[in-house]
Amino acid sequence: MGTLDIACIGSGNMGFALMKGAATVISAQNIGFTDADAHKAQAQAQALGAAVYASNTEAAEKGGFIFLAVKPQVLANVLAEIAPVIQKRLSAGNAPVLVSMAAGWSIDKIQAAVAVKAPVARIMPNTPALVSKGLIALAASPELSAEKTAELETMLKGAGAVDRIDERYLNAVTGLSGSGPAFAYLFMEALADGGVLAGLPRDKALLYAAQTVFGSASMVLESGKHPGELKDMVCSPGGTTIAGIAALEEGSFRSTVIQAVKAAWQRARELM
After folding, report:
1. What pLDDT score was predicted for residue 4?
2. DSSP code per residue over 58-81
3. E strands of 111-231, at which residues?
4. What mean pLDDT is predicted for residues 89-97?
5. Which uninterrupted H or E stretch holds 109?
6. Residues near 203 by beta carbon (within 8 Å), at least 6 away in sequence
7. Residue 134's beta-bridge partner residues?
8. Where are the alpha helices (DSSP H) in 9-105?
9. What's the rounded Cα separation, in Å, for the pair 132 and 4?
């Protein structure tokens, strides 16, 4: 086993998505899963061509990067289980990198749980990583070398865009890009419902809604123009679009979206 090997503790959708992306950089044979549900870990590993570890302890012994892809409420038990291995490896000068995606678990809290200043990275991915279109915010502890951080970033890019950020912003990231896909799906569903109301078949309405949102996001990212400027380009005087914008404003659309992000951000802070 080498330091580029990845152990993923937890084999849910997000863990699998990130491992699928990593497999575009390193061989899937250098990736291993473990999970409380052994059958689930086996199925995910088989789908990827990866390995299965017999226990979290084995995963901690063999992984150069240990992804903690478990729910925040489970993480304490996992860290307590692997702490002796992390301590031993750090003392031997072969410390693995702990990569956590658990909301509310700060770098300091993770290091306290394993009782050593291990190198830790906190990431906040989102579900579009499942189709390699995710956004992954990355914050690294001082113990994580520039070289290791760069290696991690390269692995993560297989699942989408990676943005390095100061840890203090991660709760806001959770509220915006972590929860944001659900808000976008709700908007697309409503957009499609509007199309059905206007007479479009359901399949056509959903296609048009999804492609419209996808294309609009691409315009923002690729043009470098502010969304407000792009919005104005669509709004002809006295036209159909400005009439729709007026209806959205009457329904406090922008304020409601802002409050949704705020609510998700506040919930992330409560989990700390």
Report:
1. 54
2. HHHHH-SEEEE-S-HHHHHHHHHH
3. 120-124, 134-140, 160-164
4. 95
5. helix 107-114
6. none
7. 160
8. 13-22, 38-48, 56-62, 72-91
9. 21
> Distance between CA 255 and CA 73 in Å, rounded?
32
User: Please, what is the Cα angle at 82 between 29 and 19, to 5 degrees?
Assistant: 30
Domain range summary for the chain, segments of one domain joined by +: 6-170, 178-270
Select from 3.40.50.80, 1.10.3730.10, 3.20.20.10, 1.10.10.10 the CATH code of 178-270.
1.10.3730.10
Please calculate the CA angle 91-94-100 and round it to the nearest 5 degrees: 100
Pick the CATH number of 6-170 from 3.20.20.70, 3.40.50.720, 3.40.30.10, 3.40.440.10: 3.40.50.720
Q: How far apart are CA 58 and CA 51, in angstroms?
A: 12
Find tokens 């297989």 and name the residue.
Answer: 158
Query: CA 134 to CA 178: how far, in whole Å?
Result: 10
In whole angstroms, give the CA distance from residue 235 to residue 225: 16
Query: Please, which residues bridge with residue 33 across strands?
Result: 8, 52
pLDDT in tens, 12-52: 999 999 999 999 988 999 999 999 999 999 999 999 999 99
CA-based nearest residue to 81, from 49, 114, 54: 114
Residue 63 CA: distances (Å) to CA of 27, 113, 175, 272? 14, 19, 30, 27
Radius of gyration (Cα) for the chain, nearest Å?
21
Tokens of 133: 């279109």
